[in-house]
């Protein structure tokens, strides 16, 4: 069954989705799964997925279809950054730019603040932000000043308050 042919009606016949806890449950016996068993498992990236007729579907996209009756037109962002937290209140449709504006801090970040780095050659802190391309915001000897420039730019460019979380 392809994504295009999977409907809200079909999903609701097979599964129950609880939007408050973000979990799917089987409505009927399917292979070795009994009614009321939890559906799906987490993949290696941490997203919950459900196999339907040999095709794997991401649970957050199925949740959107289940509730809204249509496939999301864009990416689904997990607002709190927890990839298997599929509560409806934690899901929103965004474009790629919106999704990138709610990212966790990168593992290799050494300053502790997204968009702030130390230029070892110049001996100064540099604040920058991305808006289709990298924009240099400020170069300063004061780390706090660089952080403030970055945070101000995040507000101006519409970044999510969770952006840069650990």
Topology:
Layout: H1 8-14, E1 15-18, E2 23-26, E3 41-42, E4 48-52, E5 55-58, H2 59-68, E6 75-78, E7 91-94, H3 96-100, E8 116-119, E9 124-130, E10 134-140, H4 143-156
Antiparallel strand pairs: 1-2, 3-4, 4-5, 6-7, 8-9, 9-10
Walk me through this protein's architecture.
The protein has 166 residues and is an alpha+beta fold. It has 2 domains: 92 residues, Homing Intron 3 (I-Ppo) Encoded Endonuclease, Chain A (Alpha-Beta Complex); 53 residues, 2-Layer Sandwich (GCC-box Binding Domain), CATH 3.30.730. 22% of the residues lie in helices and 27% in strands. It contains 4 helices and 10 strands; from the N terminus they run H-E-E-E-E-E-H-E-E-H-E-E-E-H. The strands form 4 sheets. It has a 3-stranded antiparallel beta sheet with strand order 3-4-5. It has a 3-stranded antiparallel beta sheet with strand order 8-9-10, covered by helices on one side. The chain has a two-stranded antiparallel sheet with strand order 1-2. Strand 9 and strand 10 form a beta hairpin. The two termini are 38 Å apart.
